[in-house]
Amino acid sequence: MATLAEYKGQRPAWCPGCGNFAILTAFNKAVVGLGWEPWQFTIVSGIGQAGKFPHYTRCNTFNGLHGRTLPVATAIRLANHDMHVAAFAGDGDCYGEGGNHFLAAIRRNVNVKLFVHDNQVYGLTKGQPSPTSLPGMRTPVTPAGVTEQDFNPVSAAIAMGCGFVARGYAADTDQLTELIKAAFQYRGFSLVDIFQPCVSFNKLNTYEWYKQRCYPLQDGYDPADFDAAFARSREFGDRIPTGILYRKESETYEERQPVLAGRAPLVKRVGNPSGLDETVREFA
Amino acid sequence: MATLAEYKGQRPAWCPGCGNFAILTAFNKAVVGLGWEPWQFTIVSGIGQAGKFPHYTRCNTFNGLHGRTLPVATAIRLANHDMHVAAFAGDGDCYGEGGNHFLAAIRRNVNVKLFVHDNQVYGLTKGQPSPTSLPGMRTPVTPAGVTEQDFNPVSAAIAMGCGFVARGYAADTDQLTELIKAAFQYRGFSLVDIFQPCVSFNKLNTYEWYKQRCYPLQDGYDPADFDAAFARSREFGDRIPTGILYRKESETYEERQPVLAGRAPLVKRVGNPSGLDETVREFA
Amino acid sequence: MDYTIKIGGAAGQGIQTIGFTLSKVFSRYGYDLFSYQDYESRVRGGHNFYQIRFADSQVWCPREPVDILVALDAETIRRHSDELTESGFAIYDSEDLKETYRGKEYIDVPFRRIALEQGGSKIMANTAACGAVLGMLGMKVELLEDVLASTLKHKETLDSNVAVARAGYDYGKDNCPECAFRPAGKAAARMTIEGNEAIAFSAIASGCKFYSAYPMTPSTGILVFMAGHAERHGIVVEQAEDETSAINMALGASFAGVRAMTGTSGGGFALMVEGLSLAGMTETPVVIVLAQRPGPATGFPTRTEQSDLLFGLFAGHGEFPRVVFAPGTPEQAFKLVNKAFDITEKYQVPVIILSDQHLADSAWSLDGIDLDHFKYSDYRLRGEAFAGLAEYKRHAFTDSGVSPLAVPGEGPHVVVTDSDEHDEEGHIVEDAETRVRMVDKRYFKKLAHVKIEIEPPELYGAEDPEVVLVGWGSNYGVMREAVDNLAANSRIGMMHFSELCPFPEAGRAKFMGILENARMAICIENNASGRFASLMRMETGFKFERSIHKYDGRPFTLEGLLEEINGHLSGVQRTKTGVVPGVR
Amino acid sequence: MDYTIKIGGAAGQGIQTIGFTLSKVFSRYGYDLFSYQDYESRVRGGHNFYQIRFADSQVWCPREPVDILVALDAETIRRHSDELTESGFAIYDSEDLKETYRGKEYIDVPFRRIALEQGGSKIMANTAACGAVLGMLGMKVELLEDVLASTLKHKETLDSNVAVARAGYDYGKDNCPECAFRPAGKAAARMTIEGNEAIAFSAIASGCKFYSAYPMTPSTGILVFMAGHAERHGIVVEQAEDETSAINMALGASFAGVRAMTGTSGGGFALMVEGLSLAGMTETPVVIVLAQRPGPATGFPTRTEQSDLLFGLFAGHGEFPRVVFAPGTPEQAFKLVNKAFDITEKYQVPVIILSDQHLADSAWSLDGIDLDHFKYSDYRLRGEAFAGLAEYKRHAFTDSGVSPLAVPGEGPHVVVTDSDEHDEEGHIVEDAETRVRMVDKRYFKKLAHVKIEIEPPELYGAEDPEVVLVGWGSNYGVMREAVDNLAANSRIGMMHFSELCPFPEAGRAKFMGILENARMAICIENNASGRFASLMRMETGFKFERSIHKYDGRPFTLEGLLEEINGHLSGVQRTKTGVVPGVR
Ligand SMILES: Cc1ncc(C[n+]2csc(CCOP(=O)(O)OP(=O)(O)O)c2C)c(N)n1
Ligand SMILES: Cc1ncc(C[n+]2csc(CCOP(=O)(O)OP(=O)(O)O)c2C)c(N)n1
Ligand code: SF4
Ligand code: SF4
Ligand SMILES: [Mg+2]
Ligand SMILES: [Mg+2]
Question: In this structure, are D227 and D257 located in the same domain?
Fold first, then answer.
């Protein structure tokens, strides 16, 4: 059984006080809790502060391009459906540059976990607005304030049929640990959007701002109720619910895809394929 | 006042019986009804059967790349906010290749009209599945049937805050004409997703299939009611409502953007800018 | 004998079916065959044709004279009847075309009526046409029945098609003039294969287990072939949401431990360029098929051109080695795609297969496919070999520059890679020293090894040619036949490049010697600007003084190329639509 | 006099503020200045520095010896104290660094205490440091107060900063040894400008009305500058959702009738490549800034390299003309960006401005900006001129290949363009004849005209040099100073290319003559593989036998380059980290 010590990675290059540290803690606790060894799962990340995440824990890592976490993660899982696969992305990475993959990943329902470090700003590139930045927020690129509506990832995901949708908050590390575990335990594509205070560039959505608003969903809440989930997911004002907003399992891509369903992962079936003679005969 | 005769364009290269012909008729009627001359509006289209649309009516046309209608249309409108601007795209073009722009366009709420020829298949490239193809549909690329969930554009758009969302059906040309007009009359970004039978490649979603399911929303239906609209937008089985599902105006991007709000369009303000001396002084 | 049959009509009339069926018949007869397709970017209407050339010795390219023109519409007659040879015939159905043509070369065959009379449907008129052609040629109808049997699964449909085929055959035999070109069958049945099929088949035979792509003509055939054979061969084929996804998926699958490929055309490749650079940085094996079509932008979606050579060679920010192969025939496609999978895994550099619409959609005959020619070596660290290591660093410095490529999850070490500059373990760095060592490893060291794998151009024709035709990719066939054609009168040779990057060093003295000693070296390209000529100068300093370009979206025909070459040989440089001869 | 001040510390400590403030002061004193930044891809921590070189004659590039090192952390001392000149000093705050250094060159200045004592906050320690440096240099503190006044808007903040500045100044003057380098001020105040600012300013002055981009280092400065000045100058600045959108937006705005630009770095440019090709096909004017950084992939996000030259030149499927400029100084940026806007609209071909991090983030001093140097001609058909036409065809065939570019909505004609091959009106075609005419128009005819606009490389130094340093882009300054430095001992000259594509034909006899007659031509590039050298050979056949490469992500310093050049001159070719001299 792996211990927390085994999950000590490189020294983080994040700013002191950054919400990312808490996410890292929660993640490490979650994987230790799941009993996983570092080599038993793969994290795919993009570019941004969130993208550095896998270097700071220990895991198989594909730290790829800005915006392209989901295609890489999806394919890793399709090539090896015995591997646990997660994507870690920033809000800009996932809902900006990579928005199209977000739509497609929900439709595909491949068993990949998406964790979004949602700091409502572009951190690494120094403070430009992200899709989740609130209207009116002043940034170097929007001196008169953001003109666009903000994107609500959890309500969009629920509406589009994502089967596991949760909202976490970095500073509520215990809850976050549980959400991460639950996401991994869920069978299918899942989204955990994590509020992550950026102390350097987001002076609007601060720890205080989140603290005043975030409240955990109560025990009585039924995450299987689509209508309730959708309504709750739209609560984004004075009060913002955290926890599992929606959960409903359905057949995954891997289960529906005849090449994979009930078979060994592709990575165990490498080499010359069988049946070539038959295919050759088709050219006759 | 322009007449229908003025809207005669190139000879369509569509298949006989294609649903696109009816969309063309409805569109021409709508613009004639609006009293527009061909040079008074611009259509941006992508690549696909739908992408050929502007050539078959008469209008300013930017027939650009597959998937990129919305960025071009958005910018045309920002450069000239006196121009009526519409984007015509296929379902693959808009929800596949161009999905990220769809998300962004909804957030921006620039006064651009999006018309999607939704034939639930890739027509021009000969029958591959599109994001709106139904699960299980057999195509050359999915001999065992489509493995993904289908994308419901109208419910996604409503959930994400699009202020005008309608569903049309090519064969109900009268209703479609009205929907096109209403979209143009709405102030802000609007989506009209149009069921468009593809007689060559979609043998599942045929005229008959749509006819059995589509019903127009009744007079009593209130498109300003978000919850009702969202619920209706998810009706996609034996019965599928057509008409304006949701309509609610809010400030457009042009109205919130200080460079544009209440001012002449950029295209009327070309040339050397004023105030350069002041900017030069900043380098001192 | 050397016959050309052209089937023309509107999209949706079944030209492809007729063309395909006849090709199969000729091939099973044992003839050598080359067929190609000319079609528009639409599904119905317009004007398309399918042209089959078959002969008793190997043929490689299209010719212009037509022996039998099968006209499914009046447009076909209008456009192509002047292509008929002296002894050629055009067959058509006057009822269908609502037109009757005078002249002994026009033969009215009631395709539709034949079909209906046999209880078939209207669409079976095409089967009647196939039958009639075979009847005219005096071939056996049985082979047509065989071909129908292998394509039609429903017994009823098959039966009525067979009846229609026979009736068409009889009609052709009885009512069409004794054909001047009644051929004798060869012994051994042959196979036919299209360029896209050859690429896809070779990928499968090379152990490709993952293919992700977004449909784009002329690469879609690969996607469809892979999808159609996915279940049998255990391959995941995924239609991605866009091309950025397609290439990133291929990289993900490859990182996870399986051989992966993606394919597209120029516009989609443009969207893959960032991913290509990622492959370079993370040293993740991947094969990318770039099937060219005329650009810029959407261009001519269904036509052919060779204008993306330098784009393919220099696409991607930053410096990393890559390999670019441009097969010109199915055999070259078999070999080079197989070699691509080998090299990409052995050296962890991306490999681009530069195809084009002419290669993709044309069909050739084959004697068969020898599966032993497909090399398969697994260069990855798996299972025990990986698990047994004391430590593992994904990007370890080695003498060869190649670091061990392990399969994540198969051993107790983590596998880490990064698109940022990284250390041996794959973690992000900022320092100058590591950077320089990594560039040396990734770029210079590996490149030196990759270069050794590259083979010189194929030479054909005269040993010590006075005139050399130089070209690459899908112009192989037409150049080769041009050489055959001119060999009697001039010491002429072909130099065909199919391994383009790194530029061949092996055999360089020999091939450069040929170029420098020749009286005339003509660079032949299906583009306007001479991309290969530029590459040649960049790599060797050699400047072509003569070149032949075609950039009308159509492939060279043998006659068209010969005319241009003869212009150069006789000192007369002509200018013809789409062909700009001479120096630029 | 020629001084270098280096401010080092962790990200977030305010290095940039100190560097920027001191630069302004020196500049207002009338000194010539060159400063550059070295920073990591993180927001806090790590190691960064800002280096200012100022002198009484023009300086162009970084030097290695440091006269004053301002150390905000111990790491700075560790890394950089050996860079100090004989008479140099390192100043630091021992309380803050929790470290005391022995040796006369180390001066302990209690920055933080000074700030707190004046009632300022901890962060104002940086202001104290600025004051102390000026005190040591014996400069006037008033100019620092001026600079503070122009950057700090809040009166209270300003007042306490001024107090801190004075206290720091006094401390420096009183407690630091009489500086060997007390300079005398020059007369006229000067301006400072960074490369990104020069590009953005020139775009604005050239009438750019629309800028769309997605943030990407090192191009983000342009986005921020444009956004900050959007309201004043009436520009729409839009942060796009991704780079495919950014370029398509720029094309949309341009189609609608305004001048438009987009900017990015290599990875983002990769995503714009399809759009670039679209600009070529639709003949829509657009200016694209490609600010290079080390690749492949994410690479070194905040560092410099010149490896995207051939990528920029050949990016995009299909054949279309493009223009590529690589300014090496702010003046060249003014001129070339302005020329870019002119050419892109005049000929309707895309223009790429090839910048890099070293140009983007470095600052130069300027005497001022002469607004008359910015050319503005409107090549579009607007209002009456358009409305009065009897007919209009967007892609009309003309002798020059340039078709009239009308603004949609300003006349009663429709404006139609297409990414497919099209006819004169802009509608889709499939025929070979139109295709060929369009390629001839779009490619050959326009290219011939564009070529005439291209100017030859800038020559500097000896008229008839024995040794020529050849380079491009941001190496301008370092090459020029190297020539100055070596001029006494050798007949040396510089040949700097800033207009790279189409490759200059004007003056070719002259510059090729210089290259061929020189005893030694050395190609100097900030990359590993020699992209420009390849281009040179492709375009002219000339092969560089010698080259100097730096690919560690850092710019050349004068000393570093001189050492390499001297190695070549003395016949000794050395190998130093990141610098591979000699032939490859
Ligand atoms: C294709 C591409 N475009 C732009 C960038 C530059 N870039 C790096 S990180 C980033 C945004 C970071 O924001 P987010 O994804 O929210 O992550 P955060 O830093 O806030 O965690 C951008 C634009 C890039 N690396 N690649
Ligand atoms: C970047 C790029 N990828 C792929 C293509 C090929 N392509 C052309 S149209 C099309 C799909 C058409 O489907 P849809 O958008 O639904 O339009 P339809 O033909 O069904 O109207 C594709 C994949 C392209 N032109 N560009
Ligand atoms: S910039 Fe913001 S998100 Fe990035 S490390 Fe610093 S605090 Fe965290
Ligand atoms: S393929 Fe389908 S969508 Fe395209 S024109 Fe034909 S019927 Fe219409
Ligand atoms: Mg963020
Ligand atoms: Mg479609």
Answer: yes
Residue D446 lies in a domain: yes
Average pLDDT, rounded, for chain B: 97
- On whether the CB atoms of residues D266 and C317 are closer than 8 A, the answer is yes
Give all strands (DSSP E) within B119-239, no chain letters.
Answer: 164-169, 190-195, 214-216
**Nearest ligand to the C-alpha atom of residue D43:** 3
**D544 located within any domain:** yes
Name residue D526's beta-bridge partners. none
For the segment C347-379, what is each residue's pLDDT rounded down to a tens digit?
Answer: 999 999 999 999 999 999 999 999 999 999 999
Of B97, B89, B52, the closest CA to residue B73 belongs to: B89
Per-residue pLDDT, averaged over B116-126, amounts to 98
Q: What is the CATH number of the domain that holds D494?
A: 3.40.50.920
Residue D179 inside a domain? The answer is: no
Residue located nearest, by CA, to atom 6 of ligand 3? A15
pLDDT of amino acid C175: 86
Of the partner residues D215, D217, D298, the one whose CB lies closest to the CB of residue A65: D298
Q: How many domains does chain D have?
A: 4
Q: For ligand 4, say whether the CB of B200 is within 6 Å of any of its atoms.
A: yes
| Same domain membership, residue D105 and residue D166 | yes
Do D389 and D363 fall into the same domain?
no
pLDDT digit string, tens, across residues A199-216: 999 999 999 999 999 999
D352 and D262 inside one domain:
yes
Please state the pTM of the whole predicted model.
Answer: 0.98
Residues of D in contact with C444 (CB under 8 A): 528
Residue D508 and residue D545 in one domain: yes
Question: Distance, CA A142 to ligand 5 centroid (Å)?
Answer: 16
Instruction: Check if the beta carbon of residue C242 is closer than 8 Å to that of residue B96.
Output: yes
Instruction: Name the domain boundary from C358, C373, C388.
Output: C373
User: Which stretches of chain D score pLDDT less than 70?
Assistant: 178, 180-187, 572-584
d(CA D444, CA C117) in angstroms, rounded, equals 57
D232 at interface of B, judged by CB pairs closer than 8 A: yes
B61–D417 CB contact, under 8 Å = yes
Give the pLDDT score at B1: 75
| Structural tokens at position C341 | 């999978």
What pLDDT sits at residue C1?
A: 87
**CATH (domain of A83):** 3.40.50.970
Q: Between D230, D239, D267, which is nearest A65 by CB?
A: D267
Atom of ligand 2 nearest to the CA of B89: 15
Same domain (yes/no): C389, C501: no
> Chain D partners of B274 at a C-beta cutoff of 8 Å?
233-234
Please write the tens of the pLDDT for every residue from B99-109.
Answer: 999 999 999 99
Mean pLDDT of A133-145: 97
Angle made by CA atoms C574, C580, C582, in degrees to the nearest 5: 70
- Which is the closest atom of ligand 4 to the Cα of B117? 3
Ligand 2 mean position, distance from CA B48 (Å): 5
Domain residue limits at D234 = 194-373
With 0-12 / 13-18 / 19 or more C-beta atoms within 10 angstroms meaning exposed / middle / buried, residue C239 is buried
For residue C544, is it within any domain?
yes
Q: How many domains does chain A have?
A: 1
Burial classification of residue D390, based on how many CB atoms lie within 10 Å of its CB (0-12 exposed, 13-18 middle, 19 or more buried): exposed
Average pLDDT over residues B39-55: 98
Q: Name the pLDDT band for A2 (thresholds 50, 70, 90).
A: confident
- Residue at a domain's end among C338, C373, C408: C373
- State the residue range of the domain holding B75: 4-282
Distance CA(A114)–CA(A102), nearest Å, equals 9
Pair C89, C202 in one domain: no
Nearest alpha carbon to residue C474 among C397, C399, C527: C527
- Shared domain for D128 and D199, answered yes or no, is no
What is the ipTM for the molecules in this complex?
0.98
Q: Whose CA is nearest to atom 24 of ligand 2?
A: B66
Whether A20 lines ligand 3, by a CB cut-off of 6 Å, is yes
Q: B112: which 2 tokens? A: 């651009």
